[in-house]
Design brief:
Strand order of the largest sheet of chain A: 12-11-7-10-9-8-13
Low-confidence stretches of chain B: none
Radius of gyration of chain A: 20 Å
Number of strands of chain B: 15
Largest interface: A-B, 42 and 44 residues
Oligomer: heterodimer
Order of helices and strands of chain A: EHEHEHEHEHEHEHEEEEEHHEH
Strand content of chain A: 15-25%
Structural class of chain A: alpha/beta
Strand order of the largest sheet of chain B: 12-11-7-10-9-8-15
Largest sheet of chain B: 7 strands, mixed
Structural class of chain B: alpha/beta
Number of helices of chain B: 11
Strand content of chain B: 25-35%
Number of strands of chain A: 13
Mean pLDDT of chain A: 92
Largest sheet of chain A: 7 strands, mixed
Helix content of chain B: 25-40%
Shape of chain A: globular
Chain lengths: 340, 340
């Protein structure tokens, strides 16, 4: 196989972890962005490209790592030029737009990979495998929690721009809840403080309760706390025969207790590629593309996650649970996508 | 200082297993004379030791009937009967001018709970509700930390009261005697802690439940539930009340409160400290820490001697029953939001 040419659109926080993975995979990189592309190009030896359409022309795979509101537009532009697309979550701002992108990819005969990286974190993948293997019997109740520092970039705080703590942060656990327990029948959500005039407050906390079509109930909590908060996630799946759980706060795989000079911040060692879920994710996408097989996450999964997030915002606005239409996860492109 | 006059306390019913630890704690206290009566023990539909045999095992004087217990002229009674039988015994105690410590939940309906408070107020006797978890030193520390304001305003709380199915006493899953299943048994502890932490009455309650856990036992009550509560201050809280620990677990379960504030989170889990290990039969767990039932009883006895109403009082008893009833109504109506 000749060297894979990959174009990154966007040079924000998530771009570097994708770039790390591409470099580890030996891809030839291109990058374009309204800001910060020069630094990425220099740091990773990528070629700097002046605009999105020029970048699309140069590459085999387009990797969209821009603010969420722009995902669908860039994806459609790349798809129209016959490029395979990796798109950071959420796939689009609305389920309708996500479905449009998915349909466009199917029509154009290109692959579309929504980047839900938590599927590539072994602690979650192990729970999924345990559920699938019947280790905990019939699944009944799930809990997910995700909290850390509030982001600093303004678009995260506009729901119209694809931001918000549910659509940006909790969407990871929405995808996990659906991965573990299947499609969602109804969604109830609350948030404190509320979003007023499209200004998402920070700090902010949100709770979402999902009722899955098979009767499983899931609680999801996500919070953006003040800057500097350590990042924590936890998950528990309980079934008729047992339970499986993981809590990052109890993860002692590596811990340093040390006397350090005052003012020293937490030292985070660089993640080795073998340990990086982003590497595993992108490697899976590349292999799926090469072998013409399904990836661990499909466009339909990306649509479903966006649909649940959208329903959560509708629930908050209406102060009541919101039922999801049964068509969402039965997108016609599903089978077509899988067959290719 | 003179030795305090002896206090006569009668334990009414061994239906709730907490009666055992209450007897144990009261026996240790100087100046307390103790008897017990468990007239319904012989007709309980399970094999658990009850009545005179259990009293002998516990080393407490026993009388056959409640009539004899009241004829003994107790200063106070500790009521550990089945939930729906609390009201009759509380009213009887009030009529006899006897102070009351009543097992949680105070009652199975809000009307009953209010009637019990009124009966005790009219009679001028103490009515305390047995919520031992708020006496935990770590819970007190957590509440003090959050009240200090150091972490900013509280935004949201996840309460987790998971455990094994309480199957050694059959009435826990009898809707007539218990008033419901997991939504009754395991919502109230977290609801009490929220009441103490937030100092406000819930504004709305929304719940979903299922009966997937222990489905093979064909119970008439729910075994899993998620209850979302909104408070007037904006705080959002969700309680997972599921009986989701398998019967093979090394301990009964636990209570955890995860509090998200503006500048930090506090997680308190008063039963989480202990010595873990393995023996020939598998995993072992020996809890370490204060005896919460003993701390509760000490406060009750102190209040009796000081002739004052202790906390938790009938007010919080009523407010927590309100949350349970609203949760049951919400779950029965498919997850509609119930405004209090």
């Amino acid at each position: 196989m000749s060297t894979l040419k990959v174009g990154l659109i966007g040079a924000g926080g998530i771009s570097r972890v994708h770039a790390d993975a591409w470099r580890a995979l030996g891809a030839q990189g291109y990058v374009t962005s309204l800001a910060g592309a020069e630094e990425i190009a220099e740091e990773y030896g990528f070629e700097l490209v002046t605009d999105v359409d020029a970048l699309i022309e140069l590459v085999d795979i387009v990797d969209i790592v821009t603010p969420s509101s722009t995902h669908a537009d860039f994806a459609l532009r790349a798809i129209r030029r016959g490029r395979d697309v990796i798109c950071e979550k959420p796939l689009a701002a609305t389920a309708e737009a996500a479905t449009e992108v998915t349909q466009a990819a199917a029509d154009a005969g290109v692959r579309l990979f929504p980047a839900h990286v938590v599927r590539y974190m072994d602690e979650y993948a192990q729970i999924k495998a345990g559920i699938e293997a019947g280790r905990i019997g019939t699944l009944a109740v799930q809990r997910f929690s995700r909290a850390g520092s509030a982001p600093q970039t303004p678009w995260f705080f506009s729901e119209r721009a694809g931001g918000g703590v549910i659509r940006d942060l909790m969407i990871h656990d929405i995808d996990q809840a659906v991965w573990f327990a299947g499609p969602v029948a109804s969604v109830y959500a609350v948030q404190n403080p509320p979003t007023v005039d499209d200004r998402v407050p920070a700090p902010v906390t949100a709770h979402v309760v999902l009722t899955h079509r098979n009767g499983v109930i899931s609680h999801l909590h996500a919070s953006w706390v003040a800057p500097g908060m350590p990042f924590r996630t936890s998950v528990e799946a309980a079934g008729s025969e047992g339970r499986l759980r993981y809590d990052s706060a109890e993860d002692n795989a590596l811990r340093t207790d040390a006397v350090v000079p005052e003012g020293d911040t937490d030292y985070l060692p660089p993640m080795s590629p073998e340990e990086s879920p982003y590497y595993a994710e992108i490697a899976d996408f590349v292999a799926a593309l090469r072998d013409g097989r399904e990836a661990r996450v499909s466009p339909a999964d990306g649509i479903q996650a966006v649909a649940v997030a959208e329903a959560a915002y509708a629930s908050i606005a209406g102060g009541a649970p919101v039922d999801l239409p049964t068509t969402v996860s039965h997108s016609p492109v599903d089978a077509e996508e899988a067959a290719r | 200082m003179n030795a305090p006059a002896p206090l006569r306390i009668a334990v009414l019913s061994f239906a709730h297993t907490h009666a055992l630890s209450y007897v144990h704690a009261l026996k240790q206290m100087p100046g307390v004379e103790l008897i017990a009566a468990d007239p319904d023990g012989s007709t309980a539909p399970d094999d658990a030791p009850r009545g005179a045999a259990l009293a002998a095992e516990l080393g407490v004087a026993y009388v056959e009937t409640y009539d004899e217990a009241f004829a003994w002229k107790p200063d106070a009674v500790v009521i550990a009967a089945e939930n729906s039988r609390h009201r009759g015994l509380v009213e009887r105690a009030a009529a006899a001018g006897v102070h009351v410590l009543c097992e949680k939940p105070l009652a199975t309906t809000v009307e009953d709970a209010i009637a019990m408070r009124e009966a005790c107020e009219r009679a001028g006797v103490i009515l305390m509700v047995a919520y031992p978890v708020r006496f935990s030193p770590v819970v007190r520390d957590a509440i003090a930390e959050l009240r200090s304001g150091r972490l900013g305003r509280i935004l949201g709380v996840t309460g987790i009261n998971n455990g094994k199915l309480p199957q050694d006493r059959a009435w826990f899953t009898d809707p007539a005697l218990a008033g419901g299943g997991a939504l009754v048994d395991h919502v109230v502890h977290c609801a009490d802690l929220l009441d103490e932490l937030l100092g406000e009455r819930a504004q709305s309650v929304r719940a979903v439940s299922n009966s997937i856990l222990h489905a093979q036992q064909e119970l008439a009550v729910e075994t899993g539930g998620l209850v979302t509560i909104q408070y007037p201050s904006g705080v959002v809280a969700t309680i997972d009340c599921s009986w989701s620990w398998p019967l093979s677990s090394a301990t009964w379960g636990g209570v955890t409160l995860q509090v998200v504030a503006e500048r930090g989170t506090v997680t308190v889990s008063p039963f989480a400290k202990g010595v873990a290990g393995h023996d020939a039969h598998g995993e072992t767990w020996n809890p370490v820490g204060a005896d919460l039932d003993a701390l509760l009883l000490e406060e009750f006895v102190r209040a009796l001697r000081e002739k004052r109403q202790p906390q938790p009082d009938a007010g919080v008893g009523i407010r927590t029953v309100e949350i349970v009833k609203a949760a049951q109504a919400s779950a029965a109506r498919g997850g509609d939001v119930v405004v209090l």
